[in-house]
Amino acid sequence: MGALEFESLRWKALQVASAGPGAFLSQLAVLTQLTTELAKHGISVFQISTYQSDYVLVKVEDLDAAIGCLQRFCSIEMENGEEMCVAEGVQVPGAEIKQSGDCFEVHRHPLSVPDVKLSLVQLNKTFVRRHMYSLVQLLFKTPAVDDSSSLRFLSYSETGNDISVVTSDDCFVRKARELAEQGGQGVLVSPDYWRPVQIGNTKLGFAETGIVAGQTSVLVNAGTTVFYLSTYSTDFMLIKEDEWDGTLPILRSNYELLEGSFAQLTV
């Protein structure tokens, strides 16, 4: 297999209305409701949390069905501010609504949790232009020889003029925090550390529904803060470090859980 994998599916991003930096902390229940409703209607989604907001991605071919599903309980606007509506009853071809009474049945994937702490940083493009070297070094640095066994985690999301970075790189976070403390414009560093939880031990693909809703609902119902990241091969839930001791027993009792490392993904 080559170094580059490409998926031809096109996606539309639905931004969940945001109250500003850290908004994901207060809209977790809303996100769970949205992703659950979409899963009930057979619509596969990606979810990406950033420092500023949350995004639910649906396939272009499923967009009308997704809008028809969600417009029953939320207002949907186009980027230009115009309200968007579609005819109700639009279905995803071949989709089956899987419910048992009032409960939505989903497959719970095995989870894995390594011993690593992550930091969440927001940058604007002014920062990037002034400190391009630090960002390039973060993205492309090679681990030191004596650091080759340590786990490295990096997520980079760019929306508009904002860049959201989730990283295990202490040096980068330290530099960003110093700039923020010096009054650097457009640099925000979350005061919290985060613990990553990998979903699944196989590549999740792009067809299965209910992954986001099924894995987050148990934690959200318990009042746990969840920062969610969908990626090409798998998904991650990030849990605040100060909530980790209370979250770990929930994960152990509700999921098959590998502790100490990320599970190796198989096809």
TrEMBL record:
UniProt protein name: GATS protein-like 3
Source organism (scientific name): Phytophthora boehmeriae
Pfam (any one): ACT_7
Domain of life: Eukaryota
InterPro entries xref list: CASTOR_ACT_dom, CASTOR_mTORC1
Ranges where the CASTOR ACT domain occurs: 10-71, 190-252
